[in-house]
Amino acid sequence: MTIVKIALEVIVVIASILLTLLILMHRGKGGGLSDMFGGGISSNAGTSGVAEKNLNRLTIIVALIWVAIIIALSLMAKYHIG
């Protein structure tokens, strides 16, 4: 079972990095840090509606995978599996 645990830990690291990048790719809605880094200057130059929807879906899918793996790892630790 240690191979499964190591594989899940590697996947959660990859998912964490991917989730961070996906969140940073989202267009700012105004205010906050996105305007500080120039997000307010080119607000119309962002992605189209379809691309934004696909980015939202991909972000949600990666987030759900991340949460599921975190829960699985915590259950493995609780019941001393692996």
From TrEMBL:
Involved in protein export. Participates in an early event of protein translocation. GO terms for cellular component: plasma membrane. Keywords: Cell membrane, Membrane, Protein transport, Translocation, Transmembrane, Transmembrane helix, Transport. This is Protein-export membrane protein SecG. The keyword Transmembrane applies. It is a multi-pass membrane protein. It comes from Bifidobacterium xylocopae. It is found in: Cell membrane. InterPro entries: SecG (IPR004692). One of its GO terms (molecular function) is protein-transporting ATPase activity. PANTHER family: PROTEIN-EXPORT MEMBRANE PROTEIN SECG (PTHR34182:SF1). GO terms for biological process: intracellular protein transmembrane transport; protein secretion; protein transport by the Sec complex. The chain crosses the membrane at residues 6-24, 58-77.
